[in-house]
Amino acid sequence: MNKKVRVSTILKKKADGIKITALTAYDYTFGYLIDEAGVDLILVGDSCGNVCAGHETTLPVTVDEMIYHTRSVRRGVKRALLVADMPFMSYQETIEQALHNAGRFMKEGRAEAVKMEGGAHICPTVRKMVEVGIPVMGHLGFTPQSVHEFGGYRVRGKDEQEADRMKNDAFALQDAGIFSLVLEKVPSKLAKDISESLKIPTIGIGAGLFCDGQILVSYDLFGLYDKMNFKFVRRYANLADEIRTAVKNYCDDIKNSDFPSQDESY
Ligand code: KIV
Q1: How many domains are contained in the chain?
Q2: Band of the pLDDT at 1, cuts 50, 70, 90?
Q3: Which of 20, 44, 85 to mutate to test the pocket of ligand 1 (most atoms within 8 A of CB)?
Q4: Please, what is the Cα angle at 221 between 5 and 3, to 5 degrees?
Q5: pLDDT tens across 190-240, in order?
Q6: Considering only CA atoms, which of 181, 177, 202 is closest in space to residue 124?
Q7: Whose Cα sits closest to atom 3 in ligand 1?
Q8: Which tens digit of pLDDT belongs to each residue from 145-158?
Q9: Which of 43, 50, 206, 264 could covalently link to 185 via disulfide, CB atoms 3.0 to 4.6 Å apart?
Q10: How many helices (H) and strands (E) does the chain have?
Q11: pTM of the entire structure?
C-alpha cells in the first residue's frame, strides 16, 4: 500500500503541482475497490440520496443515513483520505448543531474530514470546526442542497456578479480554514481564476481542466446510474447494461434448468 493520504498530503499535492484524484463511495465494497485502485480522496457524498436511495434531490438525506454510509465505506478504505458530506440542515441551524453532527461523523463514522456547502455565511461554523480539530472541505458553485433556491441545475458563476461573489466566498472560506474546495458546475475560466488565486486546492466537478483535482460521483463514472446525463461526466464503464445482461442471463439459465450445474451443487 502507498502511504496513507492525509489533509497535509492533499495540500502538498497542490504545492507540488500534482493533480488530486477524488471519487465518491457509499458502501464497503465500492470503498475498498476505489481505495485499492489508488484514488487520493473518497467522499461519502450525500449524492447517495440520488444514486442509492432514489430521491430526486439530496435534501431528504439524514445524518443517521450518512453515518451508516460513512461507517460502511470506512471499513473498506485504508489509504485514501475519507471525507463525509454533511447533509441538508445538519449544519445550518446553529454552530452547536453543526459541531455536534460533525463530531458524530468523526467519532461514529470515523471520517477524517467533513464537507459543507455554502459561502461566507458558513465561515463562523467552519472556523469553529477547524478550531476543535475537524478538517473541513468547502463546496461552491452549483451546490445541490440549494437546488430549489437556484430553481434548477444551471451552471453557476456565468455572470460577473455571481462570479465575483463566488471568488469572495472562496477567499472567505480559505481564511476560515477549509483545506480544499469543491467547485461544481462552474465555467472553466472562473474555476481556473479561483484555483490560481487560492493556496488550498480546488477539486472540480463540471468545472473544467484547471482545478487542482477532479471528483465524480462514482456511479456516474461506472455507468451504473444512467437516469441522468450530465455533460461533465465521463463514463469509464457501462455497468448498468452489464448488470441488466447478467440478470437476464441468470433468469434464462434458471428457466432452462441450466443453473445450478452439478459443479455448483453439493
Ligand atoms: O454529494 C456528492 O457526491 C458531492 C460531489 C458531487 C462533490 O457533493
Answers
A1: 2
A2: low
A3: 85
A4: 15
A5: 999 999 999 999 999 999 999 999 999 999 999 999 887 899 999 999 999
A6: 177
A7: 45
A8: 999 999 999 999 99
A9: 206
A10: 11, 8
A11: 0.97
Question: What span, in angstroms and rounded, lies between the C-alpha atoms of 92 and 19?
Answer: 32
Residue 178 and residue 80 share a domain: yes
Burial class (CB in 10 A: 0-12, 13-18, 19+), 226: middle
Distance CA 68, CA 111 (A): 12
Cα(47) to ligand 1 centroid in Å equals 6
Asked, for residue 266, whether it belongs to a domain, the answer is: yes
Please, what is the average pLDDT of the chain? 97
Residues 55 and 164 both lie in one domain: yes
What cell does 122 get? 458558513
Q: What is the largest CA-CA distance in the chain?
A: 70
Per-residue pLDDT band at 112 (split at 50, 70, 90):
very high
3-state DSSP of 149-188: HHCCCCCCCCCHHHHHHHHHHHHHHHHHCCCEEEEECCCH
